[in-house]
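Worked example 4.2. Below are the chains of a multi-component assembly; read each line carefully before continuing.
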Amino acid sequence: MKPKAVILLSGGLDSATVLALAQAQGYECYAMSFDYGQRHRSELAAASRLASSAGVADYKVIKLDLDGIGGSALTDDSIAVPETLEAGIPLTYVPARNTVFLALALGWAEVLGAGDLFIGVNAVDYSGYPDCRPEFIVAFERLANLATRTGVEGTGFRIRAPLQNMTKGEIIQSGYQLGVDYSQTVSCYQADSSGAACGRCDSCRLRAAGFATAGVVDPTRYV
Amino acid sequence: MKPKAVILLSGGLDSATVLALAQAQGYECYAMSFDYGQRHRSELAAASRLASSAGVADYKVIKLDLDGIGGSALTDDSIAVPETLEAGIPLTYVPARNTVFLALALGWAEVLGAGDLFIGVNAVDYSGYPDCRPEFIVAFERLANLATRTGVEGTGFRIRAPLQNMTKGEIIQSGYQLGVDYSQTVSCYQADSSGAACGRCDSCRLRAAGFATAGVVDPTRYV
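Applying the procedure described above to all two chains together yields the following structure tokens:
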């Protein structure tokens, strides 16, 4: 029987690659997305398409009203998405987002009996988000094993961040070799309803540079 | 200006006491509850009444579909609420619940500029939940300060668990001295829609014993 894993699937390039890597490593994959009031709603549609074409064992979308909490350009209409790279932690930072996502994935993993949680964080092109750093992942794994029945009485949890030390170009190359169809992914922070990208936000810039470095044809549709 | 704090408010006896303690310590209190498909829905009504009578600065209820994840007698209709004290981690354990709640409270705290998060966990009468232990609280505080802008660039977060080393009797005595109206609280895992308690579940037993030990008249309404 294949070991089970929960994969955080945003619909972006990174998590699509993580799903392909986890499947290639022999895991039965359970994908989870979050409907958290993000502006780039077409990302969710992309996540659903990716889950379906990857043939995951189950796919769950958790609705969260993070927009009620506010505080980020990604969820709060009163804060504009920046179009130049900022110094420090950017305006698109969503307070405690990966902590919330991993916590919910942890709950599902425990119910499923899945010992591995995969997340597409990346330390090289990480855009300055504190909850994408390796020390955050290590601390969450430690917490997970203190917080749960599986951690206390069972075999514990592992938080897998296989893209952690890869550049965007390396991520794209490895996904390309595994057959990931990047035309299905949406990275743009302000994509239109069809998923077409703005080409100007941080996320678009990192993505375009990644395809250029990887030497892979960029299938992104721009507005 | 008073320092701000976010208080996890379940509507039970413990969190009602925590709210009173935080107010007595001079915090401006922001209360947060979760609608997570719990069977004991009257707890949420109690939380709302408690927030209102305490005069909190803001009160937020976050809707979460943990029932879609399942795995607990508190959220899953196919698992009966046990009426005898169990050995080990009980069936009423909800996978990753306090991790999810604290993560969401952390997000709100960061947006508010609140440095303190209060949670009513208790190590003495803790019922065997792994995410009520002191080591869990310490690990979450560490995670919070790695995960957030406030942790990295600001003054950081503190997770306050003032009931940690108190018995149920001591909790009731201290709340009683601060004027907490325990008739407004609901502890029962299977309270009816009016908030009347079963008197038989773990939570009812601990509560009744607490009032007896404290020498305070028990205002609980039983079915």
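Take a moment to check your reading of the output against the notes. Chain A has seven helices and five strands. The beta strands of chain A are 4-8, 28-35, 58-63, 116-118, 158-160.
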